[in-house]
Amino acid sequence: MTYQVSIFLENKLGHLEKVTAILKQAEINIRSLHLNHTANGWGILNLVVSNPEMAHQLLNDNGMSAALREIVVIKMADKPGGLDTLLKDIIMAGVNFTNAYGRVVNEGENAFFVIDIQDIKDARTRLEAVGLDIIPNKLVYGLSQA
Amino acid sequence: MYWEKELEILELKSLGKLQVERFMKSLHQASDSPYYGRVPEIGKMLKSGMKSIEQIRELPFTTKEDLRNDFPWGFLSTDKRDVVRLHSSSGTTGNPTVVYHNRHDLASWANLMARSLYAAGVRDTDVFQNMSGYGLFTGGLGFQYGVERLGCLSIPAGAGNSLRQIKLMRDYGTTVAHAIPSYLGRLFDVFKEEGLDPRKDTKLHTLVIGAEPHTEEHRQRIEEMFGVKAYNSFGLSEMNGPGVAFECTEQNGLHIWEDAYVVEIIDPKTLQPVPDGEMGELVMTTLDRQAMPVIRYRTRDLTRFLPGKCKCGRTHRRLDRIAGRSDDMFIMKGCNIFPMQVEGVLMKLSEVGDDYRILLETMDDVDEMIVEVEVKKGWFNGDLAFLDRLQKHITHLIRDEVLIRPLVRLVEPGSIPKSEGKAVRVIDRRQK
Predict the structure, then answer these.
(1) A96 close contact with B: CB closer than 8 A
(2) Please, what are the domains in chain B?
(3) pLDDT digit string (tens) for B307-326?
(4) Fewer CB near the terminus (10 Å): N or C of chain A?
Protein backbone atom coordinates (compact mmCIF):
# COMPACT_ATOMS: atom_id res chain seq x y z
CA MET A 1 0.00 0.00 0.00
CA THR A 2 1.18 3.47 -0.89
CA TYR A 3 -0.15 6.57 0.84
CA GLN A 4 -0.42 10.28 0.37
CA VAL A 5 -1.15 12.67 3.21
CA SER A 6 -4.24 14.85 2.68
CA ILE A 7 -4.62 17.97 4.78
CA PHE A 8 -7.67 20.18 5.30
CA LEU A 9 -6.39 23.71 4.89
CA GLU A 10 -8.04 27.10 5.19
CA ASN A 11 -7.02 29.61 2.55
CA LYS A 12 -5.24 31.99 4.89
CA LEU A 13 -1.84 33.59 4.77
CA GLY A 14 0.76 31.29 6.31
CA HIS A 15 -1.34 28.13 6.67
CA LEU A 16 0.52 26.18 3.96
CA GLU A 17 3.83 27.18 5.47
CA LYS A 18 2.65 25.82 8.84
CA VAL A 19 2.52 22.40 7.18
CA THR A 20 5.90 22.69 5.50
CA ALA A 21 7.54 23.94 8.69
CA ILE A 22 6.37 20.85 10.60
CA LEU A 23 7.68 18.55 7.85
CA LYS A 24 10.95 20.42 7.64
CA GLN A 25 11.57 20.08 11.33
CA ALA A 26 11.00 16.32 11.17
CA GLU A 27 13.25 16.12 8.09
CA ILE A 28 10.44 14.71 5.99
CA ASN A 29 10.96 15.26 2.27
CA ILE A 30 8.11 16.37 0.03
CA ARG A 31 8.23 14.33 -3.21
CA SER A 32 5.15 15.72 -4.89
CA LEU A 33 2.34 18.12 -4.14
CA HIS A 34 -1.16 18.92 -5.29
CA LEU A 35 -3.41 21.70 -3.96
CA ASN A 36 -7.15 21.82 -4.67
CA HIS A 37 -8.87 25.04 -5.58
CA THR A 38 -9.69 27.05 -2.49
CA ALA A 39 -12.62 29.17 -3.66
CA ASN A 40 -14.72 28.19 -0.62
CA GLY A 41 -12.09 29.55 1.68
CA TRP A 42 -10.67 26.08 2.18
CA GLY A 43 -9.13 23.28 0.15
CA ILE A 44 -7.19 20.05 0.40
CA LEU A 45 -3.44 19.72 0.14
CA ASN A 46 -2.21 16.33 -1.08
CA LEU A 47 1.40 15.40 -0.42
CA VAL A 48 3.60 12.49 -1.35
CA VAL A 49 6.32 12.47 1.29
CA SER A 50 9.24 10.34 2.41
CA ASN A 51 7.38 9.10 5.53
CA PRO A 52 3.59 9.50 5.23
CA GLU A 53 2.70 7.73 8.52
CA MET A 54 4.98 10.00 10.51
CA ALA A 55 3.82 13.13 8.63
CA HIS A 56 0.17 12.18 9.29
CA GLN A 57 0.86 11.70 12.99
CA LEU A 58 2.83 14.95 13.37
CA LEU A 59 0.28 17.07 11.53
CA ASN A 60 -2.59 15.72 13.61
CA ASP A 61 -0.58 16.22 16.81
CA ASN A 62 -0.18 19.84 15.79
CA GLY A 63 -3.92 20.33 15.64
CA MET A 64 -4.47 19.92 11.90
CA SER A 65 -6.97 17.70 10.15
CA ALA A 66 -4.83 15.27 8.16
CA ALA A 67 -5.70 11.88 6.66
CA LEU A 68 -3.83 9.06 4.96
CA ARG A 69 -5.26 8.14 1.56
CA GLU A 70 -4.29 5.20 -0.55
CA ILE A 71 -2.72 6.01 -3.93
CA VAL A 72 -1.01 4.13 -6.71
CA VAL A 73 1.99 5.61 -8.43
CA ILE A 74 2.47 4.49 -12.01
CA LYS A 75 5.56 4.82 -14.16
CA MET A 76 5.14 7.17 -17.11
CA ALA A 77 7.52 8.15 -19.91
CA ASP A 78 8.67 11.79 -19.83
CA LYS A 79 8.06 12.52 -23.52
CA PRO A 80 5.17 13.79 -25.72
CA GLY A 81 2.33 11.25 -25.57
CA GLY A 82 3.62 9.69 -22.36
CA LEU A 83 0.46 10.47 -20.39
CA ASP A 84 -1.80 9.55 -23.28
CA THR A 85 -0.26 6.09 -23.60
CA LEU A 86 -0.59 5.61 -19.87
CA LEU A 87 -4.23 6.76 -19.76
CA LYS A 88 -5.20 4.33 -22.54
CA ASP A 89 -3.96 1.50 -20.34
CA ILE A 90 -5.75 2.86 -17.30
CA ILE A 91 -8.97 3.02 -19.33
CA MET A 92 -8.42 -0.57 -20.39
CA ALA A 93 -8.14 -1.50 -16.71
CA GLY A 94 -11.50 0.24 -16.17
CA VAL A 95 -10.19 2.50 -13.41
CA ASN A 96 -11.84 5.90 -13.21
CA PHE A 97 -10.34 8.33 -10.70
CA THR A 98 -11.25 11.73 -9.26
CA ASN A 99 -7.82 13.11 -8.52
CA ALA A 100 -4.35 12.76 -10.08
CA TYR A 101 -1.05 14.56 -10.28
CA GLY A 102 2.48 13.90 -11.55
CA ARG A 103 6.18 14.31 -11.01
CA VAL A 104 9.19 14.06 -13.29
CA VAL A 105 11.94 11.87 -11.86
CA ASN A 106 14.69 11.93 -14.51
CA GLU A 107 14.17 14.53 -17.18
CA GLY A 108 13.52 12.92 -20.58
CA GLU A 109 13.21 9.48 -19.00
CA ASN A 110 10.84 8.68 -16.17
CA ALA A 111 7.91 10.40 -14.53
CA PHE A 112 5.48 9.38 -11.76
CA PHE A 113 1.74 9.54 -12.24
CA VAL A 114 -0.15 9.53 -8.94
CA ILE A 115 -3.82 8.55 -8.71
CA ASP A 116 -6.05 8.54 -5.64
CA ILE A 117 -7.58 5.04 -5.32
CA GLN A 118 -9.05 5.35 -1.82
CA ASP A 119 -12.57 4.72 -3.08
CA ILE A 120 -11.82 2.33 -5.97
CA LYS A 121 -12.08 -1.39 -5.36
CA ASP A 122 -9.14 -3.55 -6.60
CA ALA A 123 -7.61 -0.66 -8.55
CA ARG A 124 -4.13 -1.96 -7.95
CA THR A 125 -4.87 -5.49 -9.17
CA ARG A 126 -6.65 -4.21 -12.26
CA LEU A 127 -3.87 -1.81 -13.18
CA GLU A 128 -1.27 -4.57 -12.75
CA ALA A 129 -3.37 -6.91 -14.91
CA VAL A 130 -3.05 -4.59 -17.92
CA GLY A 131 0.72 -4.57 -17.48
CA LEU A 132 1.19 -1.13 -15.95
CA ASP A 133 4.39 -0.55 -14.07
CA ILE A 134 3.43 0.29 -10.47
CA ILE A 135 6.27 1.92 -8.64
CA PRO A 136 7.23 0.40 -5.26
CA ASN A 137 7.10 2.44 -2.06
CA LYS A 138 10.79 2.95 -1.57
CA LEU A 139 11.02 4.66 -4.96
CA VAL A 140 7.83 6.69 -4.44
CA TYR A 141 8.98 7.86 -1.02
CA GLY A 142 12.53 8.48 -2.33
CA LEU A 143 14.18 6.09 0.09
CA SER A 144 16.62 4.73 -2.54
CA GLN A 145 17.98 6.09 -5.79
CA ALA A 146 15.74 5.39 -8.78
CA MET B 1 -32.98 13.44 49.29
CA TYR B 2 -33.63 17.02 50.45
CA TRP B 3 -31.20 19.53 51.89
CA GLU B 4 -33.95 21.46 53.66
CA LYS B 5 -36.99 19.24 53.42
CA GLU B 6 -39.52 21.60 55.00
CA LEU B 7 -38.70 24.50 52.71
CA GLU B 8 -38.27 22.43 49.57
CA ILE B 9 -41.63 20.68 49.74
CA LEU B 10 -43.53 23.57 51.31
CA GLU B 11 -47.09 23.62 50.01
CA LEU B 12 -47.87 26.53 47.70
CA LYS B 13 -50.11 28.42 50.10
CA SER B 14 -47.48 28.48 52.83
CA LEU B 15 -44.81 29.33 50.28
CA GLY B 16 -46.87 32.34 49.18
CA LYS B 17 -47.27 33.44 52.78
CA LEU B 18 -43.54 33.12 53.39
CA GLN B 19 -42.87 35.16 50.25
CA VAL B 20 -45.09 38.04 51.40
CA GLU B 21 -43.45 38.10 54.84
CA ARG B 22 -39.94 38.06 53.42
CA PHE B 23 -40.80 40.52 50.69
CA MET B 24 -42.12 43.18 53.05
CA LYS B 25 -38.98 42.85 55.18
CA SER B 26 -36.85 43.10 52.08
CA LEU B 27 -38.80 46.08 50.77
CA HIS B 28 -38.21 47.89 54.03
CA GLN B 29 -34.50 47.21 53.74
CA ALA B 30 -34.46 48.26 50.07
CA SER B 31 -36.03 51.61 50.89
CA ASP B 32 -32.85 52.46 52.81
CA SER B 33 -30.95 52.57 49.51
CA PRO B 34 -30.63 55.89 47.67
CA TYR B 35 -32.23 54.42 44.53
CA TYR B 36 -35.25 52.60 45.99
CA GLY B 37 -35.68 55.38 48.56
CA ARG B 38 -36.71 57.59 45.64
CA VAL B 39 -39.36 55.23 44.24
CA PRO B 40 -42.82 56.52 45.32
CA GLU B 41 -44.60 53.17 44.75
CA ILE B 42 -42.31 51.58 47.36
CA GLY B 43 -43.18 54.19 49.96
CA LYS B 44 -46.85 53.63 49.22
CA MET B 45 -46.62 49.85 49.57
CA LEU B 46 -44.66 50.11 52.82
CA LYS B 47 -47.63 52.03 54.24
CA SER B 48 -50.49 50.00 52.74
CA GLY B 49 -48.87 46.57 53.07
CA MET B 50 -49.26 43.55 50.79
CA LYS B 51 -51.95 40.87 50.81
CA SER B 52 -50.69 38.57 48.12
CA ILE B 53 -47.40 38.39 46.29
CA GLU B 54 -49.09 39.22 42.95
CA GLN B 55 -49.27 42.82 44.20
CA ILE B 56 -45.56 43.03 43.40
CA ARG B 57 -46.76 44.06 39.93
CA GLU B 58 -47.63 47.46 41.34
CA LEU B 59 -43.91 48.20 41.65
CA PRO B 60 -41.67 49.36 38.78
CA PHE B 61 -39.03 47.15 37.18
CA THR B 62 -35.30 47.46 37.81
CA THR B 63 -33.06 47.17 34.74
CA LYS B 64 -29.36 46.67 34.21
CA GLU B 65 -29.20 50.30 33.08
CA ASP B 66 -30.68 51.39 36.43
CA LEU B 67 -27.97 49.42 38.28
CA ARG B 68 -25.28 50.99 36.11
CA ASN B 69 -26.62 54.53 36.29
CA ASP B 70 -26.57 54.51 40.08
CA PHE B 71 -23.05 53.05 40.19
CA PRO B 72 -21.36 52.56 42.56
CA TRP B 73 -23.40 52.94 45.77
CA GLY B 74 -26.97 53.74 44.66
CA PHE B 75 -28.40 50.31 45.47
CA LEU B 76 -26.56 49.74 48.73
CA SER B 77 -29.21 49.28 51.44
CA THR B 78 -26.99 49.02 54.44
CA ASP B 79 -24.00 50.68 56.02
CA LYS B 80 -20.82 50.11 54.01
CA ARG B 81 -19.27 48.75 57.19
CA ASP B 82 -21.71 45.82 57.09
CA VAL B 83 -20.67 44.77 53.56
CA VAL B 84 -18.05 42.04 53.25
CA ARG B 85 -17.81 41.29 49.53
CA LEU B 86 -18.68 42.60 46.11
CA HIS B 87 -18.97 40.86 42.77
CA SER B 88 -18.93 42.79 39.55
CA SER B 89 -19.12 42.45 35.80
CA SER B 90 -15.99 43.34 33.86
CA GLY B 91 -17.63 46.58 32.67
CA THR B 92 -15.25 47.28 29.81
CA THR B 93 -17.95 49.42 28.27
CA GLY B 94 -19.39 51.93 30.73
CA ASN B 95 -20.05 51.26 34.40
CA PRO B 96 -19.86 47.67 35.63
CA THR B 97 -22.80 45.96 37.33
CA VAL B 98 -21.83 45.51 40.95
CA VAL B 99 -23.56 43.51 43.70
CA TYR B 100 -22.78 43.79 47.44
CA HIS B 101 -23.09 41.10 50.09
CA ASN B 102 -22.98 41.11 53.88
CA ARG B 103 -22.31 38.02 56.02
CA HIS B 104 -25.95 37.01 56.04
CA ASP B 105 -26.15 37.27 52.24
CA LEU B 106 -23.08 35.09 51.70
CA ALA B 107 -24.40 32.47 54.13
CA SER B 108 -27.81 32.50 52.43
CA TRP B 109 -26.22 32.17 48.97
CA ALA B 110 -23.93 29.32 50.09
CA ASN B 111 -26.97 27.54 51.50
CA LEU B 112 -28.94 27.87 48.24
CA MET B 113 -25.92 26.61 46.35
CA ALA B 114 -25.60 23.61 48.68
CA ARG B 115 -29.34 22.93 48.35
CA SER B 116 -29.01 23.02 44.56
CA LEU B 117 -26.06 20.63 44.44
CA TYR B 118 -27.76 18.29 46.91
CA ALA B 119 -30.81 18.19 44.62
CA ALA B 120 -28.50 17.10 41.79
CA GLY B 121 -27.25 14.21 43.90
CA VAL B 122 -23.99 15.72 45.18
CA ARG B 123 -23.10 14.58 48.71
CA ASP B 124 -20.43 15.35 51.32
CA THR B 125 -18.55 12.23 50.22
CA ASP B 126 -17.87 13.75 46.79
CA VAL B 127 -14.69 15.40 45.57
CA PHE B 128 -15.73 18.59 43.77
CA GLN B 129 -13.47 20.31 41.26
CA ASN B 130 -14.53 23.83 40.32
CA MET B 131 -13.17 24.68 36.87
CA SER B 132 -14.63 28.15 36.91
CA GLY B 133 -12.71 31.42 37.07
CA TYR B 134 -12.34 32.76 40.62
CA GLY B 135 -12.41 36.46 41.34
CA LEU B 136 -15.14 38.88 40.37
CA PHE B 137 -16.95 36.19 38.35
CA THR B 138 -19.49 34.53 40.66
CA GLY B 139 -18.96 31.00 39.28
CA GLY B 140 -15.76 30.66 41.30
CA LEU B 141 -16.50 31.77 44.84
CA GLY B 142 -20.24 31.07 44.50
CA PHE B 143 -19.63 27.37 43.98
CA GLN B 144 -16.72 27.32 46.41
CA TYR B 145 -18.79 28.45 49.41
CA GLY B 146 -21.69 26.21 48.44
CA VAL B 147 -19.51 23.15 48.07
CA GLU B 148 -17.88 23.82 51.43
CA ARG B 149 -21.31 24.33 53.02
CA LEU B 150 -22.38 20.97 51.59
CA GLY B 151 -19.20 19.38 52.93
CA CYS B 152 -17.50 18.00 49.81
CA LEU B 153 -13.76 18.01 49.45
CA SER B 154 -13.39 21.06 47.22
CA ILE B 155 -10.67 21.61 44.62
CA PRO B 156 -10.64 25.30 43.65
CA ALA B 157 -8.92 24.60 40.34
CA GLY B 158 -9.98 27.76 38.54
CA ALA B 159 -10.48 28.07 34.78
CA GLY B 160 -8.27 26.78 31.98
CA ASN B 161 -4.99 24.85 32.01
CA SER B 162 -6.51 21.58 30.87
CA LEU B 163 -3.48 19.41 31.60
CA ARG B 164 -3.52 20.53 35.21
CA GLN B 165 -7.29 19.98 35.43
CA ILE B 166 -6.82 16.41 34.27
CA LYS B 167 -3.96 15.82 36.68
CA LEU B 168 -6.03 17.15 39.61
CA MET B 169 -8.95 14.91 38.63
CA ARG B 170 -6.74 11.86 38.54
CA ASP B 171 -4.62 12.68 41.61
CA TYR B 172 -7.55 13.33 43.96
CA GLY B 173 -10.28 11.19 42.39
CA THR B 174 -12.62 14.05 41.46
CA THR B 175 -16.21 12.80 41.30
CA VAL B 176 -18.06 16.04 40.48
CA ALA B 177 -16.89 19.02 38.45
CA HIS B 178 -18.33 22.36 37.43
CA ALA B 179 -17.50 24.11 34.15
CA ILE B 180 -19.04 26.19 31.42
CA PRO B 181 -20.28 23.90 28.63
CA SER B 182 -18.11 25.45 25.92
CA TYR B 183 -14.99 24.50 27.86
CA LEU B 184 -15.81 20.81 28.24
CA GLY B 185 -15.36 20.00 24.55
CA ARG B 186 -11.87 21.41 24.68
CA LEU B 187 -11.07 19.53 27.89
CA PHE B 188 -12.23 16.31 26.25
CA ASP B 189 -9.87 16.93 23.31
CA VAL B 190 -6.97 17.27 25.72
CA PHE B 191 -7.96 13.98 27.39
CA LYS B 192 -7.80 12.34 23.97
CA GLU B 193 -4.48 13.97 23.08
CA GLU B 194 -3.07 12.53 26.29
CA GLY B 195 -4.34 9.09 25.32
CA LEU B 196 -6.87 9.15 28.18
CA ASP B 197 -10.59 8.41 28.26
CA PRO B 198 -12.47 10.35 30.95
CA ARG B 199 -15.00 7.50 31.16
CA LYS B 200 -12.32 5.05 32.26
CA ASP B 201 -9.52 7.19 33.56
CA THR B 202 -11.44 9.39 36.01
CA LYS B 203 -14.00 8.81 38.77
CA LEU B 204 -16.30 11.56 37.50
CA HIS B 205 -20.01 10.77 37.85
CA THR B 206 -21.51 14.25 37.67
CA LEU B 207 -20.84 17.48 35.80
CA VAL B 208 -22.51 20.74 36.63
CA ILE B 209 -22.78 23.00 33.61
CA GLY B 210 -24.03 26.55 33.47
CA ALA B 211 -23.36 30.25 32.87
CA GLU B 212 -23.95 29.75 29.15
CA PRO B 213 -27.23 28.84 27.57
CA HIS B 214 -26.97 25.48 25.82
CA THR B 215 -29.23 22.94 24.21
CA GLU B 216 -30.41 19.52 25.36
CA GLU B 217 -28.30 18.00 22.54
CA HIS B 218 -25.21 19.75 23.92
CA ARG B 219 -25.91 18.32 27.37
CA GLN B 220 -26.27 14.83 25.96
CA ARG B 221 -23.03 15.16 24.04
CA ILE B 222 -21.23 16.18 27.23
CA GLU B 223 -22.79 13.25 29.11
CA GLU B 224 -21.58 10.84 26.44
CA MET B 225 -18.07 12.28 26.25
CA PHE B 226 -17.47 12.06 29.98
CA GLY B 227 -19.78 9.18 30.89
CA VAL B 228 -21.58 11.28 33.51
CA LYS B 229 -24.87 12.91 34.37
CA ALA B 230 -24.73 16.60 33.51
CA TYR B 231 -26.96 19.04 35.41
CA ASN B 232 -27.96 22.46 34.27
CA SER B 233 -27.21 25.31 36.64
CA PHE B 234 -28.71 28.77 36.29
CA GLY B 235 -27.76 31.97 37.98
CA LEU B 236 -26.89 35.59 37.41
CA SER B 237 -24.72 37.88 39.47
CA GLU B 238 -27.57 40.35 40.08
CA MET B 239 -29.37 37.50 41.90
CA ASN B 240 -26.12 36.37 43.65
CA GLY B 241 -24.77 34.07 40.95
CA PRO B 242 -25.02 30.27 40.68
CA GLY B 243 -27.60 28.53 42.87
CA VAL B 244 -30.64 30.49 41.71
CA ALA B 245 -32.20 27.60 39.81
CA PHE B 246 -30.91 24.07 39.42
CA GLU B 247 -31.91 20.73 37.98
CA CYS B 248 -32.76 17.93 40.35
CA THR B 249 -31.93 14.32 39.49
CA GLU B 250 -35.08 14.15 37.33
CA GLN B 251 -33.21 16.38 34.82
CA ASN B 252 -36.47 17.92 33.76
CA GLY B 253 -36.32 21.67 34.27
CA LEU B 254 -34.59 23.85 36.84
CA HIS B 255 -36.21 24.37 40.24
CA ILE B 256 -36.05 28.05 41.03
CA TRP B 257 -35.89 28.65 44.77
CA GLU B 258 -39.07 30.57 45.52
CA ASP B 259 -38.37 31.06 49.21
CA ALA B 260 -35.41 33.20 48.10
CA TYR B 261 -36.81 34.86 44.98
CA VAL B 262 -40.11 36.12 43.60
CA VAL B 263 -40.23 34.85 40.04
CA GLU B 264 -42.28 36.39 37.24
CA ILE B 265 -42.30 35.77 33.51
CA ILE B 266 -43.40 38.70 31.40
CA ASP B 267 -43.88 39.59 27.77
CA PRO B 268 -40.84 41.81 27.05
CA LYS B 269 -42.94 44.03 24.78
CA THR B 270 -46.15 44.56 26.79
CA LEU B 271 -44.39 44.02 30.17
CA GLN B 272 -47.47 42.07 31.29
CA PRO B 273 -47.29 38.56 32.77
CA VAL B 274 -47.54 35.81 30.15
CA PRO B 275 -50.07 32.99 30.64
CA ASP B 276 -48.60 30.14 32.71
CA GLY B 277 -46.35 27.89 30.65
CA GLU B 278 -45.68 30.43 27.91
CA MET B 279 -42.27 31.77 26.96
CA GLY B 280 -41.26 35.22 28.19
CA GLU B 281 -38.63 37.23 30.01
CA LEU B 282 -37.65 36.18 33.51
CA VAL B 283 -38.11 38.88 36.15
CA MET B 284 -36.74 38.28 39.65
CA THR B 285 -36.85 39.85 43.11
CA THR B 286 -34.52 38.93 45.96
CA LEU B 287 -36.22 37.85 49.21
CA ASP B 288 -33.25 37.07 51.40
CA ARG B 289 -30.57 39.62 50.61
CA GLN B 290 -29.84 42.46 52.99
CA ALA B 291 -26.93 44.50 51.60
CA MET B 292 -28.51 44.92 48.21
CA PRO B 293 -32.10 43.82 47.64
CA VAL B 294 -33.16 44.06 43.99
CA ILE B 295 -36.81 44.40 43.06
CA ARG B 296 -38.37 43.12 39.83
CA TYR B 297 -35.08 42.80 37.98
CA ARG B 298 -35.44 42.27 34.24
CA THR B 299 -32.95 39.46 33.56
CA ARG B 300 -33.43 39.47 29.74
CA ASP B 301 -33.32 35.68 29.92
CA LEU B 302 -36.10 34.00 27.99
CA THR B 303 -37.71 30.95 29.51
CA ARG B 304 -41.02 29.55 30.72
CA PHE B 305 -42.45 27.68 33.67
CA LEU B 306 -42.74 23.96 33.04
CA PRO B 307 -46.29 22.88 33.80
CA GLY B 308 -47.07 20.17 36.32
CA LYS B 309 -45.34 18.87 39.42
CA CYS B 310 -41.86 17.42 39.53
CA LYS B 311 -41.53 13.76 40.53
CA CYS B 312 -38.89 14.74 43.08
CA GLY B 313 -41.60 16.28 45.28
CA ARG B 314 -40.16 19.79 45.42
CA THR B 315 -42.88 22.42 45.14
CA HIS B 316 -40.66 25.19 43.82
CA ARG B 317 -41.56 25.72 40.17
CA ARG B 318 -39.30 24.62 37.34
CA LEU B 319 -37.91 26.82 34.59
CA ASP B 320 -37.34 25.46 31.13
CA ARG B 321 -33.74 25.74 29.94
CA ILE B 322 -32.91 29.27 28.86
CA ALA B 323 -33.98 29.67 25.23
CA GLY B 324 -31.82 32.73 24.68
CA ARG B 325 -31.92 36.31 25.77
CA SER B 326 -34.32 39.01 24.82
CA ASP B 327 -31.21 40.90 23.75
CA ASP B 328 -29.07 38.32 21.92
CA MET B 329 -31.71 37.75 19.35
CA PHE B 330 -30.77 39.25 16.01
CA ILE B 331 -32.80 39.98 12.93
CA MET B 332 -31.59 38.89 9.49
CA LYS B 333 -33.61 39.50 6.38
CA GLY B 334 -36.68 39.97 8.52
CA CYS B 335 -36.26 36.75 10.50
CA ASN B 336 -35.77 36.69 14.27
CA ILE B 337 -32.84 34.40 14.97
CA PHE B 338 -31.41 33.07 18.22
CA PRO B 339 -27.85 31.71 18.20
CA MET B 340 -29.24 28.73 20.13
CA GLN B 341 -31.16 27.67 17.03
CA VAL B 342 -27.92 27.40 15.07
CA GLU B 343 -26.27 25.61 17.98
CA GLY B 344 -29.12 23.13 18.14
CA VAL B 345 -28.48 22.16 14.52
CA LEU B 346 -24.71 21.86 14.89
CA MET B 347 -24.88 19.77 18.06
CA LYS B 348 -26.74 17.07 16.19
CA LEU B 349 -23.83 16.60 13.78
CA SER B 350 -21.01 14.40 14.97
CA GLU B 351 -18.68 15.65 12.21
CA VAL B 352 -18.36 19.12 13.68
CA GLY B 353 -16.88 20.36 16.95
CA ASP B 354 -18.57 22.21 19.81
CA ASP B 355 -17.29 25.62 18.87
CA TYR B 356 -18.98 27.76 16.30
CA ARG B 357 -19.27 31.43 15.45
CA ILE B 358 -21.89 33.47 13.68
CA LEU B 359 -20.66 36.49 11.70
CA LEU B 360 -23.16 38.98 10.37
CA GLU B 361 -21.66 40.87 7.45
CA THR B 362 -22.72 43.12 4.65
CA MET B 363 -21.42 41.70 1.37
CA ASP B 364 -22.21 43.55 -1.89
CA ASP B 365 -24.90 45.53 -0.05
CA VAL B 366 -26.64 42.36 1.13
CA ASP B 367 -26.58 41.22 4.74
CA GLU B 368 -25.31 37.68 5.14
CA MET B 369 -25.13 35.29 8.04
CA ILE B 370 -21.85 33.39 8.00
CA VAL B 371 -21.60 30.35 10.22
CA GLU B 372 -18.07 29.15 10.96
CA VAL B 373 -17.87 25.51 11.97
CA GLU B 374 -14.85 23.44 12.97
CA VAL B 375 -14.36 20.14 11.17
CA LYS B 376 -13.48 17.49 13.76
CA LYS B 377 -10.12 15.81 13.29
CA GLY B 378 -11.40 12.26 13.47
CA TRP B 379 -13.92 12.76 10.68
CA PHE B 380 -11.67 14.18 8.02
CA ASN B 381 -10.78 11.49 5.49
CA GLY B 382 -9.03 13.64 2.93
CA ASP B 383 -11.98 13.65 0.56
CA LEU B 384 -13.02 16.94 -1.00
CA ALA B 385 -16.47 15.56 -1.84
CA PHE B 386 -17.09 14.73 1.83
CA LEU B 387 -16.41 18.32 2.84
CA ASP B 388 -18.61 19.67 0.06
CA ARG B 389 -21.46 17.40 1.16
CA LEU B 390 -21.00 18.37 4.80
CA GLN B 391 -21.09 22.07 3.95
CA LYS B 392 -24.26 21.69 1.89
CA HIS B 393 -25.88 19.55 4.57
CA ILE B 394 -25.21 22.12 7.32
CA THR B 395 -26.43 24.96 5.08
CA HIS B 396 -29.64 23.09 4.43
CA LEU B 397 -30.28 22.22 8.10
CA ILE B 398 -29.69 25.77 9.32
CA ARG B 399 -31.89 27.16 6.56
CA ASP B 400 -34.70 24.88 7.64
CA GLU B 401 -34.29 26.03 11.23
CA VAL B 402 -33.94 29.81 10.89
CA LEU B 403 -35.53 30.28 7.46
CA ILE B 404 -32.66 32.14 5.87
CA ARG B 405 -29.78 30.64 3.94
CA PRO B 406 -26.45 30.91 5.79
CA LEU B 407 -22.99 30.86 4.25
CA VAL B 408 -21.34 27.94 6.00
CA ARG B 409 -17.57 28.12 6.34
CA LEU B 410 -15.68 25.04 7.38
CA VAL B 411 -12.62 25.96 9.40
CA GLU B 412 -9.65 24.08 10.85
CA PRO B 413 -10.07 22.64 14.34
CA GLY B 414 -9.01 25.08 17.04
CA SER B 415 -9.21 28.10 14.75
CA ILE B 416 -12.29 29.68 16.35
CA PRO B 417 -10.99 31.99 19.07
CA LYS B 418 -11.75 30.67 22.55
CA SER B 419 -12.73 32.96 25.37
CA GLU B 420 -12.10 32.23 29.03
CA GLY B 421 -15.53 33.43 30.14
CA LYS B 422 -18.75 33.20 28.19
CA ALA B 423 -18.16 32.28 24.55
CA VAL B 424 -18.81 35.05 22.04
CA ARG B 425 -21.08 33.43 19.48
CA VAL B 426 -22.30 36.34 17.36
CA ILE B 427 -20.25 39.10 15.79
CA ASP B 428 -22.31 41.74 14.04
CA ARG B 429 -20.32 43.66 11.44
CA ARG B 430 -23.26 44.73 9.31
CA GLN B 431 -23.37 48.24 7.92
CA LYS B 432 -26.30 49.80 9.68
Answers:
(1) no
(2) 1-327 (3.40.50.12780), 330-429 (3.30.300.30)
(3) 999 999 999 999 999 887 77
(4) N
